[in-house]
Design goal:
By secondary structure, the protein is α/β, with parallel strands linked by helices. Helices cover 55% and strands 13% of the residues. Strands 2-3-1-4-5 form a 5-stranded parallel β-sheet, sandwiched between helices. The structure holds thymidine-5'-diphosphate. The site of thymidine-5'-diphosphate (TYD) has 17 residues, from helix 1 and helix 4.
Length: 212
């Protein structure tokens, strides 16, 4: 059975992720690839309902275990009903955030022990991981200044945490990338937008070539 490719984008607040994902999808589609764009928390119908629950009830200030369990409940549904079926059809699935977000937001920065996060992960999605993760890395001061005024639905959640929290997110992401160089690619998100777009496209096309 031919299997598609699962790519995730990760990064802190204001890393330019949303713009870059839209550009990546457009570039891949223009090159004739069949792409499914999705996001977390959310993605599937029930996943989106869980996202709404998180946002409407101030999820960023919940006990961290409640945050992690909800993220993985949504992720399990998203993975089984949307991601895996699309991969089975040979599609390229691109997700705006995935498990690494829980590893750093609830784990490293939120204070949940890494082994606990991994055991919830095992229960929810087993060994399933992306084929490639693009990490948009930027200093929190720069990212947060960029993110101000974007008006998205989580402006009042993690964006308002301290710089120290965002610095932990950044280091958490960089540690994941250092420990899994086969899966993770770090992109310098302080570069100009077009340079970032070009680099992301190059890495993705390389991966597609290796995969077929
Ligand atoms: P979103 O509006 O998608 O933010 P961004 O544009 O930064 O991706 O909101 C997602 C928020 O939820 C973001 O602040 C990160 C957080 N989050 C977690 O805390 N844990 C998770 O597992 C995921 C997927 C997201």
């Amino acid at each position: 059975m031919q299997r598609g490719l699962f790519i995730t984008l990760e990064g802190g607040e204001g890393s330019g992720k949303s713009t870059q994902i839209a550009r990546l999808v457009a570039n891949l589609e223009a090159a004739g690839h069949s792409v499914v764009l999705t996001r977390e928390p959310g993605g599937s119908d029930a996943g989106e309902a869980m996202r709404d629950l998180f946002v409407a009830h101030g999820g960023a200030s919940w006990p961290v275990a409640a945050q992690a369990l909800l993220m993985f409940a949504a992720r399990s549904h998203h993975t089984e009903t949307l991601i895996k079926p699309a991969l089975a059809q040979g599609k390229i699935v691109i997700s705006d955030r995935y498990t690494d977000s829980t590893r750093v937001y609830q784990g490293v920065a939120g204070g949940m022990a890494a082994d606990k996060v991994e055991s919830i992960k095992q229960a929810a999605i087993g060994d399933f991981e992306p084929d490639m993760t693009l990490l948009l890395d930027i200093a929190p001061e720069v990212g947060l200044a960029r993110g101000q005024g974007r008006g998205n639905d989580t402006d009042t959640t993690f964006e308002t945490k301290t710089i120290a929290f965002h610095e932990m997110l950044r280091q958490g992401y960089l540690d994941i990338a250092r420990n899994d160089t086969k899966r993770c690619v770090v992109i310098d998100a302080a570069q100009d937008m077009d340079a970032i777009t070009a680099q992301i496209l190059e890495k993705t096309l390389e991966k597609i070539k290796q995969h077929v």
